[in-house]
Design goal:
By secondary structure, the protein is α/β, with parallel strands linked by helices. It is built from 10 helices and 12 strands. The strands form 2 sheets. The protein has a 6-stranded parallel beta sheet with strand order 3-2-1-4-5-6. A 6-stranded mixed beta sheet has the order 7-8-9-10-12-11. The longest helix is centred in the last third of the chain and has 20 residues. The radius of gyration is 20 Å and the shape is globular. The structure holds guanosine-5'-monophosphate (5GP) and manganese (II) ion.
Amino acid sequence: MSNPVSHVLPAGTDAVVGQIRDAIVSRQRFLITSHARPDGDSIGSQLAMAFALDALGKQSRIINADRAPDHYYEFPGLGRIEIAAEVPADAIADAVIVMECGDLTRTGVRGFEERYIINIDHHAGNRMYGAINWFDESAAACSEMVYDVIGALGVPMSLEIATHIYLAILTDTGSFHHSNITPRTFDICRQTVEAGVNPAIMARRVYDSNSFGKLKLIGALLDQMELVHDGRVAVLRLDDDVLASCGCTNNDTEGIINLPLTAREIQAVVFFRTTAEGEVRVSMRSKYDVDVRMVANEHGGGGHKNAAGFTVTGPLHELQPLIVERLVRAVDEGLESRPPE
Ligand code: 5GP
Ligand code: MN
């Protein structure tokens, strides 16, 4: 069963959504991309858009720098995603739809630069690099914006489209934990459920598909977790050796960072992932008004208030105290505006 998408656009967005609609209607061949190391929102936004383009009889290819985590491959259309470091020579297109990327380097794919770009994103600090730029920080997930574009195109909410819109919202809100959720978020989710999405199945597939190795890894990481600032900040560290000793791959690290936040006192978590090449990948999560995006911005990264990250090179023993001290400050500032529980 498929319902027509009918809704009112958020205030002030009619013009840009209309531009995107017209740009899509008047073109035939599209490339779709999103950020490197894709998450549920990048996967869901891209595939919802691809299925909508299918419905309009348009051609599209999805080109990403990295594979999605394995469990996403249960969702429709994942096999369509091509993995490449450079846009393939035969990828002829009239436009590129870039979602979830503050700038083009976030794609991790070279070769989009000279193309006609439609930029759709909800990360603060978007560089407006497209021919059309739609940036809405108030969207809980980029897929809320994709939903608007699909509605403007008059494409019915098929089960595939609904599944990917819901997947993106479910994951980008941290399964409805983050502070960017609005009535609109639930209104869109309601429509996806009406179109046939089963929230229980979605939650099980996304969050309850761990390997046994991942459970071991969770145990190992939480066992060595450090608590600072009276337990308000948690620090997790992972290197290749620990990963291998649990029989895990990078794929298995997704979501572990959220676990410390289940402790009442913990307001922010930082996860340091060191690699053999000397890179440190830093992920952060927080509650309420504790702003970890500001911390990521100071190191060339980005994200959202409650979920952000960056990558640096350099020894962890120098980086860790700086970041932890900065997070302590973010926690103190955020606590001042914390809502009563
Ligand atoms: P994660 O910690 O799951 O990798 O990322 C959390 C959030 O921060 C996501 O919205 C992601 O797009 C953003 N993010 C993570 N790393 C970077 C980065 O290096 N640069 C930017 N601009 N955003 C990032
Ligand atoms: Mn997102």
